[in-house]
């Protein structure tokens, strides 16, 4: 890389931080499995034997997904719930990640998701399970 | 189903034609996609939203359920994100004259994808003062949460299929003169040995299924029991269900005496430890008893393995229907209701 001649110290700091972070990634287990990330990285043509880099990508992706999810969560909370849903939600108090919120959240990240207007999705598929986190 | 495109600064024009392939790449039903879906669901579950306005929820709010399409989309976007990172990082590595990328390439790729929350200072060397720090902060804040179940090494090496022993190894005479001794033996010649080697045969059949299903790069051994959220269940469980339902077919055929106490240990040895499947299996075998079709046992154990690709409901249906010829007319109605019950049960299990 041919940049960064002029900002030597900042570069040094950043490099140190990055190196330290990479070293700490050896102990950190991202939620996205290494093998999955490695598989898709290999599909994209990127090759590296270093597990730290794979974890770096995994952590970055995890952060991305978490950011999107938290944005969608905010949309979900901010949206006035319709009456029918309100009852349902009051009944079992659980939030459903809907396409509507997700597309709004993703738009901020430059991903345009076009949600078919009358696409009959089954939001109830996730309603069955026992409440795990509550 | 859903059209989405990612604008990552490279330019969106002329991407329409590729988008179909992309969609094929990132929205499929293969194993890796299912894994990604589970991981994304897990991440989304861990995201918490604290707001003082909502007093009733002290612990913060989080998603506990997902629309299928939303989860699919998010998983697809996440995979696309990984793909884009890889592609861009590789591009930067190649520009710098390297084959293998390093961390700086990845950071640069991340910067290109615009995942920095703040305004990235392009003048700075790495552009990562914000970006890397964000990620570091994230790893510090987020709860450390490994994937729900242990995976074996991802591209699993396929086991070599062992050819059946030849006639000379079995020490059997070929049924006809024109068949040389060194050819692999016919299945019916080693009926005696099948009994002993039934377990291995079963396993072979199973691995065959896993191989035949495209892109499934895993074996069921690394899985644990899951509870709760159906979105976090092992993607291979469905496969297992299917397989075991196929195996259940075997249970239709054994005659009255041997059905319960003889064949089930063999199935047990094939290590499908699912309660549902067990119930299923027992009920099926009871059915088999009821109908009491007098059938040779071992031969069926052999060729049912070959027809594993059929959908399970169909398979049971056919196998039962085929047997209908041997029945009296009276039994038919009972059987019909039995079949329907079976189907409902199987369907609900599969679901």
From TrEMBL, chain A:
Pfam families in alphabetical order: TAF10 (PF03540)
UniProt signal peptide: none
Annotated GO biological process: transcription initiation at RNA polymerase II promoter
KW Transcription regulation (keyword) present: yes
GO molecular function: promoter-specific chromatin binding; RNA polymerase II general transcription initiation factor activity
Keywords: Nucleus, Transcription, Transcription regulation
Entries under InterPro entries matching the protein: TAF10
PANTHER family: TRANSCRIPTION INITIATION FACTOR TFIID SUBUNIT 10
Functional note: TAFs are components of the transcription factor IID (TFIID) complex that is essential for mediating regulation of RNA polymerase transcription.
Family statement: Belongs to the TAF10 family.
Protein name in the entry: Transcription initiation factor TFIID subunit 10
Organism: Raphanus sativus (Radish)
Origin organism lineage: Eukaryota, Viridiplantae, Streptophyta, Embryophyta, Tracheophyta
Gene: LOC108822704
Automatic annotation (TrEMBL), chain B:
UniProt subcellular location: Nucleus
Chain positions covered by the region annotation Disordered: 1-21, 197-228, 327-351
InterPro entries to which the protein is assigned, alphabetical: BTP, Histone-fold, TAF8
Origin superkingdom: Eukaryota
Assigned GO CC terms: transcription factor TFIID complex
Feature: compositional bias, Basic and acidic residues: 203-217
Sorted UniProt keywords: Nucleus, Transcription, Transcription regulation
GO MF: protein heterodimerization activity
UniProt xrefs under Pfam families: Bromo_TP
Keyword Transcription regulation in record: yes
Location of the Bromodomain associated domain: 29-119
PANTHER family given in the database record: TRANSCRIPTION INITIATION FACTOR TFIID SUBUNIT 8
UniProt-recorded name of the protein: Uncharacterized protein LOC108861873 isoform X1
Organism (species): Raphanus sativus (Radish)
């Amino acid at each position: 890389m041919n940049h960064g001649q002029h900002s030597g110290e900042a570069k040094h700091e950043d490099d140190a931080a990055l190196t330290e972070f990479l070293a700490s990634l050896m102990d950190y287990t991202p939620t996205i499995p290494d093998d999955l990330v490695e598989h898709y990285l290999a599909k994209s043509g990127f090759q590296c034997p270093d597990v730290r880099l794979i974890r770096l990508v995994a952590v970055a992706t995890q952060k991305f997904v978490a950011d999107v999810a938290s944005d969608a969560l905010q949309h979900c909370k901010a949206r006035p719930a319709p009456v029918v849903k309100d009852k349902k939600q009051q009944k079992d108090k659980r939030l459903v990640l809907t396409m509507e919120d997700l597309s709004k959240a993703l738009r901020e990240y430059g991903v345009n998701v076009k949600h078919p207007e009358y696409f009959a999705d089954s939001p109830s598929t996730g309603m069955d399970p026992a409440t795990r986190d509550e | 189903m859903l059209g989405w495109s990612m604008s990552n600064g490279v330019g969106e024009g002329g991407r329409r034609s590729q988008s179909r392939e992309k969609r094929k790449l990132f929205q499929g039903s293969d194993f890796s996609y299912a894994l990604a879906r589970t991981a994304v669901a897990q991440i989304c579950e861990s995201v918490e939203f604290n707001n003082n306005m909502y007093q009733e929820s002290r612990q913060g709010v989080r998603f506990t359920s997902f629309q299928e399409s939303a989860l699919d989309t998010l998983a697809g976007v996440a995979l696309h994100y990984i793909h884009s990172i890889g592609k861009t990082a590789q591009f930067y590595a190649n520009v710098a004259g390297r084959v293998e990328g390093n961390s700086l390439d990845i950071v640069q790729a991340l910067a290109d994808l615009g995942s920095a929350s703040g305004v990235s200072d392009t003048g700075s060397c790495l552009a990562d003062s914000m970006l890397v720090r964000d990620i570091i902060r994230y790893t510090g804040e987020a709860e450390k949460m490994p994937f729900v179940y242990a995976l074996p090494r991802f591209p699993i090496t396929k086991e070599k299929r062992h050819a059946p022993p030849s006639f000379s190894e079995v020490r059997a005479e070929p049924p006809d003169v024109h068949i040389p001794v060194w050819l692999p033996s016919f299945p019916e010649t080693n009926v005696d040995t099948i009994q002993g080697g039934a377990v291995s045969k079963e396993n072979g059949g199973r691995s065959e299924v896993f191989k035949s299903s495209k892109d499934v790069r895993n074996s069921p051994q690394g899985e644990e029991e899951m509870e709760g959220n159906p979105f976090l269940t092992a993607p291979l469980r469905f496969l297992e269900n299917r397989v075991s339902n196929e195996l259940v077919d075997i249970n239709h055929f054994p005659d009255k005496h041997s059905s319960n106490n003889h064949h089930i240990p063999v199935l047990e040895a094939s290590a499908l430890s699912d309660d549902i499947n067990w119930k299923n299996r027992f009920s099926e075998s009871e059915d088999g008893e009821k109908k009491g079709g007098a059938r040779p046992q071992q031969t069926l154990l052999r060729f049912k393995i070959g027809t594993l690709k059929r959908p399970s409901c169909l398979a049971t249906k056919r196998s039962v229907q085929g047997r209908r010829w041997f029945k009296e007319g009276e039994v038919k109605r009972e059987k019909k209701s039995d079949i329907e019950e079976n189907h409902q049960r199987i369907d609900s299990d599969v679901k």
